[in-house]
Amino acid sequence: MGKAAEHYKQICRDGLEVEAEWLRLGARAKAHSVDLLTRQLGRPLSSLCEFGCGTGAVLESCIELGLA
Q: Which residues of the chain have pLDDT under 50?
């Protein structure tokens, strides 16, 4: 692998780590929104299903909040 190819490969690796951290930080606010919406139901949730194509950060944050 050439020097340029290795350089761009490193940029992609670093970019993915930064993107994952950005998604994780945004997930907290989204989880709090889920919490607010579900509180309006007036009863605790027994389960929670999150549909997404991301890193799972929103679901992880929901679990940390004890939403289900």
A: none
Helix (H) or strand (E) holding 21: helix 3-39
Other C-beta atoms closer than 10 Å to the C-beta of 16 total: 11
- Tell the residue number behind the tokens 């020097």, with chain if given: 3
Distance in angstroms (rounded) separating the CA atoms of residues 28 and 12: 25
Q: Quickly tell me which residue has 């289900």 as its tokens.
A: 68
Residue 34 and residue 11: Cα distance in Å, rounded? 34
Task: Give pTM, 2 decimals.
Answer: 0.66
For residues 25 and 40, what is the distance between their CA atoms, to the nearest angstrom?
Answer: 25
Residue corresponding to tokens 């945004």: 26
